[in-house]
Amino acid sequence: MESDWGYIEPEKLFFEAGRTRPLSELVDNLIEKWEPQANRFPSATAEQTIEIIPKLEHQEESSTSNLNAAKKILKTKDSIQKHSLNLKRVSFEVERFAANETYDPTERESTKTQIALRLGAKPEKKKCINYKAMKEEKLQKKQKTEYEKLQHAEIYSLKNKKKRKTKNKRNQL
């Protein structure tokens, strides 16, 4: 019952509510349980010999020199990244300057929108078209293409007829 940590089963919760123990009492019980287990590990005695391994001076220097070399490498990588970021920043500034200095206001607006799109802005929505009007446009385009096909077929058939007539005349002679 001491190992239950004050846990009361759900069936007994309302009928046999047990006594809940304070935290200090629970901790004391836990320490008493673990003390015998802590003594299981062998401790160093006078009979056992302890071997001390001295650290050589050149070992310390080599480890610190490696750290210094690593710091230098990291610094160069940081400077390369900063340099590439600066190039991006400069090219952006040049594009922005060119966009602001254009004479034509419509061109200026279009270049500004292109820069904004490159920087991650959402593109403009397409203009809405009435469904009936769009259907009419598609129908007109379809009729126009069919008409062009018919004209092309008529022209092609006339050419073939002329060729046939000339062949027939040659054969008759």
UniProtKB/TrEMBL annotation:
It holds the Pfam family FSAF1. It comes from the Eukaryota. This is Uncharacterized protein.
